[in-house]
Specification:
Blueprint (H helix, E strand, L loop, with lengths): L2 H32 L6 H19 L3 H22 L9 H23 L15 E4 L3 E4 H23 L1 H11 L1 H6 L4 H23 L9 H16 L4 H21 L4 H15 L10
Helix pairs in contact: 1-5, 1-8, 1-9, 1-10, 2-3, 2-8, 2-9, 3-8, 5-6, 6-8, 9-10, 9-11, 10-11
Length: 290
């Protein structure tokens, strides 16, 4: 492998890892604060991809505006979903949470089949994100993949700022540590949970919308992302946003270079990484924190 190819694969690994981070950070918010094991999280990623498929023709070259509108729609969907179903799960044990969210996966798949069918679809990136760009004299790289990486970095920075530097973030961190104390201080914990859940859904859907032009939009596409996202959360440390970022980048590197050097064994590389890290640090790479 020459230096240019190696550099391209490194950028691909970072781009994939950052995309995984978006999905996993939503999963971490929902599990770390609300304590809900949400198997339906991959369906929100799929929802985002299908939103991109439906909205892209309407917005044309206004791709960023399409992302904003799709994210708002996904957040509204998450807000209503928490009110209708997830608000009843907080006092239930994990087995009941798993069964209920698994049932939601089946419902979402049937609804998808009824509304858009079972065909595989593609989403075209706008013209201003098409083609490649030169990165020095060494290599060229697809503009859209560069845009996807920068967008994920910007969203991750906004998430960090919201959680660590705003009043809403202060309430979220307090709610994750001691929900009874937060309730006792008069903070509307029900509304807070609903906002956090909507944010988690929006992050997963946004990742799906960003990924849509790079991969096909197809039935069941949330399943693989869900499993890998859980791997990221476990490796990073449950409830840790910085841990999720580090773990997502590690998973991206292992998955990308595993496919390049060990194509036949690439499917087990990520899980082998998780096993090794859990033997070394059973609690994950980082402690619960933001």
């Amino acid at each position: 492998m020459d230096l240019a190819t190696f550099a391209v694969q490194c950028l691909n690994a970072v781009q994939y890892g950052l995309l995984l981070f978006l999905v996993a950070s939503g999963l971490t918010l929902i599990f770390g604060i609300m304590g809900v094991i949400n198997l339906a999280h991959g369906s929100f990623y799929m929802l985002g991809a299908y939103l991109a498929f439906g909205l892209a023709p309407l917005f044309g070259q206004n791709f960023v505006l399409m992302l904003v509108c799709g994210t708002l729609l996904a957040a509204l969907f998450g807000y209503l979903l928490e009110w209708a179903f997830f608000s009843y799960l907080y006092q239930r044990d994990h087995l009941q949470q798993v069964l209920m969210t698994w049932a939601l996966i089946l419902v979402f798949e049937e609804l998808r089949s009824m509304l858009v069918g079972n065909d595989v679809h593609g989403v075209k990136a706008p013209d201003w994100l098409a083609g490649t760009v030169a990165l020095g004299e060494l290599m060229t790289y697809p503009v859209y993949r560069l845009f996807a990486s920068l967008a994920c970095l910007a969203i991750g920075a906004a998430l960090w700022f919201t959680v660590n530097r705003t009043r809403l973030g202060m309430m979220i961190r307090a709610g994750a540590s001691n929900r009874d104390m937060v309730r006792g201080l008069g903070i509307p914990i029900t509304w807070l949970y609903r906002v956090v859940f909507a944010g988690g859904v929006a992050l997963a859907a946004l990742a799906g919308m960003i990924a849509a032009p790079m991969s096909s939009v197809y039935p069941g596409m949330g399943g693989h992302v869900l499993i890998v996202s859980f791997v990221v959360v476990v490796i990073g440390g449950i409830g840790s946003i910085p841990g999720a970022l580090v773990a997502a980048l590690l998973v991206g590197l292992v998955d990308t270079f595993g496919k390049v050097f060990f194509a036949e064994l690439s499917g087990i590389g990520v899980y082998l990484l998780m096993a090794v890290i859990l033997v070394w640090r059973p609690e994950g790479l980082m402690r619960k924190g933001w």
